[in-house]
Amino acid sequence: MNRTKGDEEEYWNSSKFKAFTFDDEDDELSQLKESKRAVNSLRDFVDDDDDDDLERVSWTGEPVGSRTRPGSFQSLSDALSDTPAKSYAPELGRPKGEYRDYSNDWSPSDTVRRLRKGKVLIFLKRTLSKEILFRELEVRQIALRHLIHFLKEIGDQKMLLDLFRFLDRTEELALSHYREHLNIQDPDKRKEFLKTCIGLPFSAEDSAHIQDHYTLLERQIIIEANDRHLESAGQTEIFRKHPRKASILNMPLVTTLFYSCFYHYTEAEGTFSSPVNLKKTFKIPDKQYVLTALAARAKLRAWNDVDALFTTKNWLGYTKKRAPIGFHRVVEILHKNNAPVQILQEYVNLVEDVDTKLNLATKFKCHDVVIDSCRDLKDRQQLLAYRSKVDKGSAEEEKIDALLSSSQIRWKN
Among 184, 209, 353, 354, which residue carries the largest CB count within 10 Å? Predict the structure, then answer.
C-alpha cells in the first residue's frame, strides 16, 4: 500500500492513539489516560449488542447481521473486520541518516525531544530494522500496543505477522492470518484459504468458528451454482415470481438461513440448501430459526407454513400452538408483512397476558378480540369507548350493543 505524506499526516491528526514518547517518567494522569485508551480500544473486538430482533432479516442482497450474537461464528469475522474509516500513518519527513546510530544510543537529548513531539512509531518503523524495533518495543508495552493498532489500521499484514511471530503470540498470529481472507474475492480461492486456517493455533471456540466459516462458504458455493442454473432455466416458480437480487456467496449465516427458508423451505433435510439441514449443521437455536423462518414465510404470505411452524402435536395426537419467541412477537411480524386480520386475530388470541393481548388487538384493529377481552375483563367503560372505533351498523357494533344490554354480565364499572 502506497501512502503519501499527506495521508500519513492525516493518521496522526485523526487517530485516537497519541504517539508514544518513550518517556519512562509518565505521571499518573498520563498513565490513567493511557489505560482508558487501551480499554476503549477493546470495543473494536467486543460485541455487546443484545438486540435479537432477527425478524428484521430480509433478502436484499446485502450482508445482514453484521453484528451477531455470541455463539455465531460470524462474530469472529466481525471482530476482525476493518474499522469504519481507515487512517493512514504519516512519514516524518526526516532523513534516515539523522537516526542512523539510533540503535546504539537509544535516548540522546535531541532524540527524546523529537520523540515527544509524536509520530515516533512511523519514524522508527521506517528507520530501524524489524529485529531492533521489535526488541525495543517488547519491553515497552504501551508503545507496542500503539504499533499493533497502527499496523491494523493501515492494513500492513506482513509486518503484523512478523511482529506476532517475534512475540510468539501464536493465537494473534493465527487471527491475523485468518483476516487475510477478507482480501480474497474469488469464492473458491477464499474457501481453499479458509481450509488452510483450520489447523492454526486458535482457541477451541475460534477453531469451531473457522470450521463453520469454511463449511458455510463451501455450502454457499454449491447452493449458488444450483440456484443460478434453476433461475436461468426459468422453470422454477419461486425464482420466476421472486428473482434473486444478489448472490448468496459470502453472506452471514442468518442471511443464508433466511434465503434457504425463502427459496428452499420444503426441501428434504438431506439437501445442502434445506433450512432444517442448516439448523442442524450449524446448531442454530430454535428461537433464531423460528424468527428467521417466520420472516421468510410471512414475506411470501405463506400462511399455511406459518401455521405449521407453531403447531405441535403431543403423543396422544392433540395439536397445540407453541411459540418459543412469544406470540406477541409473532403478531408484530405478521402485521409488518400485511397479514389478513383473520390471521392476526388468531395469533393475538394466543397471547397469554390479557393486557398485552388487548393492547395488540386495539393497535391492529382486531375488533372481535378487543370486544371479547373487554367482556372477559367486565370492563363496560372500555367497551363503550371502543364502540366509537368500529363502523356504524357493522357486525362489531351490533355485538357490542348486545353485550352492553346483556343482564348476564356483572360489569365492574
Answer: 209
Assess contact for 376 and 354: CB atoms under 8 A. yes
Instruction: Report d(CA 323, CA 332) in Å as an integer.
Output: 13
Q: Please identify which residue in the block is written with the cell numbers 459470502.
A: 250
d(CA 96, CA 102): 10
This prediction has a pTM of: 0.64
Residue reference for cell 425464482: 239
Bridge partners (DSSP) of residue 311 are 321
Q: For residues 81 and 74, what is the distance between their CA atoms, to the nearest angstrom?
A: 11
Task: Kindly give, in sequence order, each residue whose CB lies less than 8 Å from that of residue 272, ignoring residues fewer than 6 positions away.
Answer: 219, 222, 223
For 342-358, the pLDDT digits (tens) are: 999 999 999 999 999 99
Extents of the domains making up the chain: 114-168, 182-284
Task: Determine the Cα–Cα distance for residues 367 and 161; give it in Å rounded to an integer.
Answer: 65
**Cβ atoms of 169 and 137 closer than 8 Å:** no
Mean pLDDT of 368-379: 92
DSSP output for 253-265: HHHHHHHHHHHST
The mean-pLDDT minimum among 155-159, 162-166, 292-296, 404-408 falls in 155-159
C-alpha cell at 355: 393486557
Distances in Å between the Cα of 316 and the Cα atoms of 237, 319, 320 are 38, 9, 12
Task: Give the separation between CA 72 and CA 87, rounded to whole angstroms.
Answer: 30
Residues facing 103 on adjacent strands: none
